[in-house]
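thought: user wants a sequence for this fold. calling inverse folding tool.
action: design(structure=
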């Protein structure tokens, strides 16, 4: 896996690593598939996590651990969308806005998770070189993937919030390709948000507070 950590090329004075480029291209493809509500978004996300896990394992334990969590959430998403197929007329996952209870739960989980992970990264500096923003991006990504797995339009809002920190964080830490890809993510997120928003209105149906998914 050392070859994946080597430099692929330079762009605007920034070193582009093979691992950074390949992992993020898979992530970009997964986001595009998520926009189309294709269940293949989850295998692609899992594969991206697997590649980066192999790159980081035995070298950057914290980064490898984060990719393991991402892979676990991808498996959960696959399972959720398999259960939910057929809910909409076109055979794909039906999308909806979260209830206020769900929004509050996700916001609380994001806040508590960010603090907990940041404190862990701070206590063990080898896990992260920038604990608080790194924890924010990591936890925000997990929350966004969870919302995507549940077919919530808020998934796209969560990605926008991740992008606000992810872009400058990646450039600052030398992951230029990640930074460029996050900019593209932003454009895809806006298109995806519009599409899911409109679909949620077309397929609107009441969701009771506390009702099972």
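)
observation: tool returned 213 residues.
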């Amino acid at each position: 896996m050392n070859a994946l950590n080597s430099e692929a090329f330079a762009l605007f004075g920034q070193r582009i690593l093979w691992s950074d480029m390949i992992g993020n291209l898979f992530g970009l493809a997964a986001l595009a598939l998520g926009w189309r509500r294709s269940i293949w978004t989850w295998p692609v996300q899992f594969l991206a996590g697997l590649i980066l896990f192999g790159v980081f394992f035995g070298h950057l334990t914290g980064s490898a651990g984060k990719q393991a969590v991402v892979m676990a959430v991808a498996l959960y998403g696959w399972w959720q969308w398999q259960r939910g197929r057929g809910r909409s007329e076109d055979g794909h996952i039906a999308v909806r806005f979260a209830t206020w209870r769900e929004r509050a739960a996700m916001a609380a989980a994001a806040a508590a998770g960010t603090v907990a992970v940041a404190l862990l990264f701070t206590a063990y500096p080898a896990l992260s070189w920038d604990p608080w923003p790194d924890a924010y991006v990591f936890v925000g990504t997990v929350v966004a993937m969870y919302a995507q797995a549940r077919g919530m339009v808020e998934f796209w809002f969560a990605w926008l919030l991740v992008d606000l920190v992810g872009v400058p964080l990646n450039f600052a830490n030398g992951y230029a390709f990640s930074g460029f890809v996050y900019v593209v993510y932003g454009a895809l997120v806006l298109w995806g948000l519009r599409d899911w928003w409109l679909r949620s209105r077309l397929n609107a149906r009441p969701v009771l507070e506390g009702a099972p998914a």
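thought: summarizing for user.
answer: Here is the designed sequence. The mean pLDDT is 79.
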